[in-house]
Amino acid sequence: MGRRADRDAIAVVPWDRRSASQRSELAALLAAYHLQTESEKGTSVVSIEHLPVRYAAEVTGPQHVFVDDVVLIARVRDPDVNQDRELARDLDRSQDLERAQDLAVGCLVITSRGAGVLELRRLWTDPAHRGLGVASALLEAAHAHAARVGASSLRLSVWDWRTDAIGLYERLGYTGVDPWDDRDRLCCLERAL
């Protein structure tokens, strides 16, 4: 069993696309997600400039690409927050003080596919923060959002080599369905609400 964080230490919040600092945080999370995914596919991509165009656009302009989506950010308290607060005060940098309070460590994009169907995409937890319950917290928030908007089902796709993620989805009630995406090795799952 992985390490777990105090649930109160993880906050899932809606992404504020107007905030430059939050755009930067989301861009960093998406860059890590896409670079890791391309690496797992066996594609040598060393920077976002070498990502497929649609993925690079997510990283460089998430406020444009996800304009109609709900984006959730998972934040955890920085264990060095007291030291960072002292540094920020010493430097009289209030922006650093705000950032020292918590770290963006995960993201999830919720896209409406019409007819009460929501698709979950870009679920990512920073590798240094895995095993703390970040992905579970993001999924719980997505499920709550789906209930609020009256969705009938949630769907997602995941690469078949991401067995830990598939196990998590199955534990949360997702089951395999006929694929809506024909990419090789991509598993499609759905959960009725």
UniProtKB/TrEMBL annotation:
SUPFAM superfamilies: Acyl-CoA N-acyltransferases (Nat)
InterPro entries given in the database record: Acyl_CoA_acyltransferase, GNAT_dom, NAT_camello-type
Keyword Cytoplasm: no
Pfam family, one: Acetyltransf_1
Domain N-acetyltransferase, residue spans: 51-193
Superkingdom of the organism of origin: Bacteria
Keyword list, A-Z: Transferase
Protein name listed in UniProt: GNAT family N-acetyltransferase
Organism name: Leucobacter rhizosphaerae
